Amino acid sequence: MHITRRRFLAFSGIGMATAFTGCRPLEIRGVSPDSALDVINQPGLTGKALLAGNKHRFLGYPVNMTTLPEEFFSWRRQLHAAGINQFAFNNVGNPFKESSLPFNTHDFEREVIRHFAGLYGFPVHDYWGFLSNSGTDSNMHGMYMGRTLLTTRTGVRPKVYFTGEAHYSIQILGDLLGMEMVQVATLADGGMDKVSLADHLADNRDHPALVVATVGTTFKGAIDHVDAIQSVLQGVDSYVHLDAALFGGYLPYTPFVSQVLHQNGNRRRYDSLAVSCHKFFGFPSPAGLFITRDSLYQEFNEQFSRIHKPEYIHHVPGTITCSRDAVKPAEFYFFTTGSASARQAADAGSILQLTARLHQEMQSRMPMLQATRANHLSNTLYFRKPSPAIIKKYSLATMNLATAAGTEGYAHVVIMPHVTDRVIDEFLTDLEVDRGGAGV
Ligand SMILES: *Cc1c(COP(=O)(O)O)cnc(C)c1O
Asked: Which CATH architecture is the domain 74-336 placed in?
């Protein structure tokens, strides 16, 4: 039977609405029936609710699946009562400048940046930043700032340096920003090899260097040591962006905070920082922190104001995107409070403890899986790939890694605050009885 598009829409329950423009009715195709907003007509929603019951077994990706405490939802309701998330608030522009759009939450955004700039050891009177869409968005701003500053200072567009362990967004952004990319080799622990970096820098002496250092690489949880990188960058026109999307969330609450601090004494370690809000903090939608020094931002902004006309919003926005979410900064403000900070500190301690325990048990009970923890700051373990059933049950991420024996399949787990001892016990038991794994 031939089914026309109109009949198909009628069959599939996707309707059509009629609007009136003057005297001629206008059909709006593909509308959902209003009854679709009734939960009984949405079996998919029940499925999502069931899924929520299984979220503590989500081990393969760096997202904190903990349902936030009631205090968060209470704060959300208070914001809602003030109109936030009821109509179109918008944080367009620089949160540190007066805005011509009064319906914004720049005040909360400034507080969020002030709090976290302090946590990462930025100078009290020299920090700037905003709440971005994601870790990737923060990386984009960092790399764009670095490219702009270095190009202006030297007249030559920089090359961008990173390792094969860096997040894939860096490759996309390097391409987007039209920068030649230089892949630096890694050490056995997955961190950037400073000797390789020095070699590449020597080969590219006529170009400034934009280095993206990662604290907590995506698959291995490796660390690029910023101080070692800076020692090699002596005398080179350079800019260092720190991608700490995951580790940057929890390290400030641990004895290992120095890895993500902006300064070591009076020495600046990096120029800008990216941290995801939905990873360690468990913020319920994607968002990111972008923080840099205000003095650096001012230098960037001078160039930025020359390449576009910001007249329409009455100031240089400072950000690449125009409209920005006003709800997220106001809601993320919750994570700056004392009780939230105490919970974050407790979570940071327990994920590292649980990672150490899982690592030790995997090594003793199933050595053939070769479970590896790149360093003791990491909440990530990678090991030889188990059976598809286990990969599916725990949503494990997998990757082929080059080893002495050639290319082998690996999986990793990322121990986030929602992971309990009980789930780890269940996981270990499942691995022990697993007969489909590569290591058996
Ligand atoms: C997750 C991750 C990103 C991307 O962050 P999003 O917030 O998902 O955009 C970038 N870098 C690293 C190291 C990551 O772990």
From this structure: 3-Layer(aba) Sandwich (3.40)
